[in-house]
Amino acid sequence: MAEIEIKNLHKSFGDFVAVKNSNLVIENKEFFVLLGPSGCGKTTTLRMIAGLELPTSGNILLDKEDVGYLRASQRDIAFVFQLFALYPHMNVRNNLAFPLKMQKFSKTEVDAKVMEAAKLLRIDHLLKSKVSSLAGGDRQRVALGRALVRRPKAFLMDEPLGTLDAEFRELMCLELRKLHDDIDATTVYVTHDQQEAMSMADRIAVMNEGEVLQADSPKIIYNKPKTKFVANFIGSPGMNFIPIKEKITPNQSSIKLLDSSLKIPEQREGTNSNENFLGVRPENLRLVSENGVKGNIFGVEYLGSRKILTVETQLGNIKIRVDSDTQVKINEQIQFDTLNNNQIIFDGSNDMALQSEFMS
Amino acid sequence: MMDTSRSPSEASGFSRKLAATIIIVYMVVTLIPISWMVATSFKSVDSAISYPPEVFFEPSLEGYVNLFTNRSRQPKDYLDSLPPPETWYEELVRSREMVITGPSKFLPRYSNSLIIGFGATFFSVFLGSLAAYALSRFKVPLKDDLLFFILSTRMFPPIAVAVPIFIMYRKLGLGDTHVGMIILYTVVNLSLSVWLLKGFMDEIPREYEEAAMIDGYSRMQAFFKVVLPQATTGIAATAIFCMIFSWNEYAFAVLLTQFNAQTAPPFIPTIIGEGGLDWPAIGAGTTLFLIPVMIFTVVLRKHLLRGITFGAVRK
């Protein structure tokens, strides 16, 4: 298993820039997720690590060795495709044995390794089956088996759960993470599904428009997003952004919001712009009976353990997460304020979060 | 009341019967000449030209014997002086007051057809699949123009360039050689094969060969081990089209071959000239000529059906 380092990686297709000067370090034995909307460059990054695309510039180091411009076959990594790419003209056993046949193993060694991988993934009873007769989850397991059978330095996975149904996806999330821990793998996993990313990753890199915006643990990504895009992309629903029409200066610890003043974490930086945003997650807001921001209930989403209220205010629509037994009616007038001191100020000029008592 | 037992997209009983009738009529129309030809091959020379034509007749292998042998007519007293015939075909020939002077050229011509037909088919499909793969997967400069250029070689009948090819072949010493004919038929078939196979290659997801390449195989190995097996349908369909062309081709064969590499199509008509109109021998030659391409098509039939309707409905 190995450490992967990406240095100033850049890829353009003609005029279109897919990946912009990205830098990442993926630690040995880490489960690393590249997360972002479609077209953000995460798959291109992964394909460059795999050797399926060559970088326009920059380096990819695998265990300190520059492999950026080597052929895929010379890199000793495995790739799991979204559509699995199991060879349809071979049965399960031959699919699993295919990567081994290239290396000079004896037939008994190949059989032993195939059996070991099949047992690990609980597909040993399917070895003689045709690939086309397998269910989605079993195909997924065969694809994983083919990846791990030769114990490569790293596993790369491109939305491998994308085609499974929801129930199965949750199960496979658990299995994948367990498999990763059991074989001490280094895994780079691409997805656009934040829940998948949050539940499996040691660290997540959020990408947008070819740039890595933030690479941190799921907890930090969620609580302390560095940019407005990350704050909005992570979390369901995403963060509320309340426009504030004042310039923030260092050491400031309250802002004016409509008529009242709101306490915020002490800021370490100031903003360039006069139009900025206060970021606050829906669960960090609460309903109060007085001295809060006033608004009308516009919509109520019941989600079992909780409710998401959409409140129409003079500051725009704001989402608040409340307990599911909270009784509110549409158009009812309510008041709310902040639950704690976890707000983040985003500079309106560049959408970056300001350093503060909370963020640092 | 409406019949709701079938789905609206299914054909009704009447239209099914109509379709069956049309197919049967069409089948009879197309099969009559072929069955007449096969019947003729089993007739004697006399019954083949009798009027009114005989539908029921006493079968004879005379046509086949005549096809495979050269014979000469001899006076009766000479025939009587010979030792009695050793084989059934000698006996048959003697009864027509002839003796067998040797094997005819049919067998060598027939094997020329097999060598050239299968050879050209193999190379058309092999080169075609390599070119199709490249055009399907790589950024080739001027790709669309290249594809059009490849197709444009079929926009005139190949025989239109017969004279330049004839001269070229004579200068290169390729006239009347197996290699020359295989090259010629391969070249004529290549445009069809590249275009057909490119369609099939486009439909094979790249992930398969990418997976193989990550698993340690070179692109060429991935092509042979992963891409080609999945293109079998397309290869079978293409091979049938190429085979039918090279097998049946007449004009170039007449022009470019005489002795060494002559194929069956130009040979069969020459039977007519040998001692009157020997219709049973012609029938026999044509019947035997049909068989390889028929077997080839039947063997690959299930691929052919999928092949020519390919792309109509996505898998």
How would you portray this structure in words?
The complex is a heterodimer of chains A (360) and B (315). Chain A has 2 domains: 4-228, P-loop containing nucleotide triphosphate hydrolases (Rossmann fold, 3-Layer(aba) Sandwich); 229-346, OB fold (Dihydrolipoamide Acetyltransferase, E2P). Chain A is an alpha+beta fold. In chain A, strand 12 and strand 13 (260-263) form a beta hairpin. In chain A, helix 2 (92-102) packs parallel to helix 4 (136-148) and helix 3 crosses helix 4 (136-148). Chain A has helices spanning 42-50, 92-102, 107-120, 136-148, 166-182, 194-200, 218-223, 228-233; strands at residues 4-13, 16-26, 31-35, 57-62, 65-66, 77-80, 154-158, 187-191, 203-208, 211-216, 240-244, 254-257, 260-263, 276-280, 285-288, 293-302, 306-313, 316-323, 333-338, 344-346. A two-stranded antiparallel sheet of chain B has the order 1-2. The model of chain B is unreliable at 310-315 (pLDDT under 50). Chain B has 16 helices and 2 strands. Chain B is globular, with a radius of gyration of 26 Å. Chain A binds chain B through residues 50-52, 71-73, 75, 77-79, 81, 83, 85, 87-89, 98-99, 102-103, 146, 150, and chain B through 205, 207-208, 210-218, 221, 225-226, 229-230.
Number of strands of chain B: 2
Fraction in helix of chain B: 55-70%
Measured on Cα atoms, how large is the radius of gyration of chain B? Answer: 26 Å
The number of helical segments of chain B is 16
Quick take:
The complex is a heterodimer of chains A (360) and B (315). Chain A is of the alpha+beta class and 360 residues long.
Secondary-structure topology with pairs:
The complex is a heterodimer of chains A (360) and B (315).
Chain A: E1 4-13, E2 16-26, E3 31-35, H1 42-50, E4 57-62, E5 65-66, E6 77-80, H2 92-102, H3 107-120, H4 136-148, E7 154-158, H5 166-182, E8 187-191, H6 194-200, E9 203-208, E10 211-216, H7 218-223, H8 228-233, E11 240-244, E12 254-257, E13 260-263, E14 276-280, E15 285-288, E16 293-302, E17 306-313, E18 316-323, E19 333-338, E20 344-346
Parallel strand pairs in A: 3-8, 3-9, 6-7, 7-8
Antiparallel strand pairs in A: 1-2, 1-4, 4-5, 9-10, 11-14, 12-13, 14-20, 15-19, 16-17, 16-19, 17-18
Chain B: H1 13-41, H2 45-48, H3 62-68, E1 69-73, H4 76-81, H5 88-95, E2 98-103, H6 106-137, H7 143-152, H8 162-172, H9 178-203, H10 207-214, H11 219-230, H12 232-248, H13 251-256, H14 264-267, H15 279-299, H16 301-308
Antiparallel strand pairs in B: 1-2
Helix pairs in contact in B: 1-15, 3-15, 6-9, 6-12, 7-9, 9-12, 10-11, 12-16
